[in-house]
Design brief:
By secondary structure, the chain is of the alpha+beta class. It is 35% helix and 19% strand. The longest helix has 24 residues. It is globular, with a radius of gyration of 29 Å.
Amino acid sequence: MSEEIAVERLTEAQARAELARLADVLARANAAYHVEDAPVMSDAAFDALKARNAAIEARFPALKRADSPSDQVGAAPAEGFAKTRHSVRMLSLANAFEAEDIVEFDARIRRYLGLSDSAPLAYTSEPKIDGLSLSLRYEAGHLVTAATRGDGETGENVTANAHTIADIPAWIEGAPDILEVRGEVYMSHADFEALNARQAERGDKPFANPRNAAAGSLRQLDATITAARPLRFFAYGWGETSAPLAATQMGAMARLGDLGFQTNPLTTLCNGPTALIDHYRKIEQDRATLGYDIDGVVYKVNDLSLQARLGFRATTPRWAIAHKFPAELAWTRLVAIDIQVGRTGALSPVARLGPVTVGGVVVRNATLHNEDYIAGRDSKGGLIREGRDIRVGDWVQVYRAGDVIPKIADVDLSKRPADATPYRFPETCPECGSEARREPGDSVRRCMGGLICPAQAVERLKHFVSRAAFDIEGLGAKQVEAFYRDGWIREPADIFTLEARYGQGLQQLKNREGWGEKSAKNLFEAIDEKRKISFSRILFSLGIRHVGEQASSLIARHYGTWAEFTAAMDSARALQGPEWERLLGIDGVGEVMATSLVQAMTEPHERASIDRLTAHLEVEAAARPDTSGSPVAGKTLVFTGTLEKMTRAEAKARAEALGAKVAGSVSARTDLLIAGPGAGSKAKKAVELGIEVIDEDAWLALVGAQ
């Protein structure tokens, strides 16, 4: 067991070390699970570590490793088997652990597809079998290849072994010429017990669980051993196919059943998240009686045309999610509530707990989210935990169900101390004493001290030198803290005058404890190397609230040069007008982000600090996408009215990818207006200005999307 530091408290150096540790631990766990068939940790513990890795990468995006567990599916194929490359990658699924995650999954899909909350949207719901994934390739009806998942791209050829499994037909009739059937190899509880009894009779080592037994049996180099093992197979999907199986997921599963494959009889069709959660709870209640192991329930959008529109992320499909069963819970005493101040001024409450083991890790801290959560309310005033508040001295239930930072699920009021009082959230910053204000619509209270708040200043400087920002070799979080404490660096511009101020004279960097002539020289050279910086990096480095790495790249590509960007922000100062509309027109930039960006770039003290910084820099123009042959490259487009064949988000994304700029309002600089049904004032204004107006069909034809 080991104690871990909460993600929000990690320094950059600690984060880098932790990512290295997690990459190693998860790689070994993956190999043990997928290659050696001998897991070294529970699924819940693995999920928690992988989620911790993802959260650290989200906080320190520049530290993401080339071998990041976030980008990996399974493990590399073992030696001893021939390798088989999947014609269609075998991806993993995103995980959900709470009912709220499923509601958000549904909402996220509806937003992407442009569907209203009331529009019908059906999902399939099926048990998630805890076995070994297998892909079966049929050509002209004959099984020609069977391959394990491997790393998602290349698996192990276990065709001979697959031929010994009764549930896997060697030949199918009426199938497409090419059909890859994907499913899970598993072992029933009864067969597992019988197998272990035979193992014991022969004096052989028993298997730890049915999943290990199934995986070890399938991955035998001697197929006669596999033939002697009672393996089963459930089909759950497909890879490459020369012809569609059906128009829906449910229809395709029925087709696989007609072809002779076993499909899970508990698979059902659900309309909306409430029905999905009800089915999940029913399966969870029946879990012990199924006769085989499952570790959750999988939901998939039923309409295959919608699946195609939703597409994939790097390692997971957008149209499916695995709702995992709860991980371990534990009870402990809440010793204290501390407040931490982040770089945006957010006051974050952290629970200090009596040490308790949860999911194989000793936990001493847990997030408390915000003052509403402590009070037993959600952000809209609704009750959580049936309105039970959290107080110092309480006996609290802690969980880690895939969440990186442990959370408090409930409070045992029967054990509440008689003298426990409701927690009063501070209204002043514990770091600088400034007012801590909660703005309307915001779920957190923030310090208003800004640059005078040492916590914010230090955290912003740490962010400035992080890997995805300036990434100055030799100037990490530890050095920033020391330089700030001693008054050497107060704002980013000070970094670029450090040599002029402390390169010579009585107070020289080389004379500081822990420094020498060579290390000081190396730092000054590293700083000089960063005087030429990309547009997107400098924007991200400023740590503007709501403006992350991806948004910084989008904004940089849209404006091209730093000069054009700053001029546009000045013009949008009043949060209205053409430049404001242009900013809002960038795909991925909403009003909240745009407001934060403009305010940060036009607040006098903030802007002066940014200008002092850029005076020392050469900001490189953003690289434009390759839009050779694009009919709209360099043009400014406006979409108006109702788009019927794609959502506004899809249309904007397509236009941006083709090198166009998308604005939210019509002006003399608009080159083309795409008008759907219901187009009003924008279409009228475009006609008045002599701007070309086309409908959605013409737009699709123009960009070759028909």
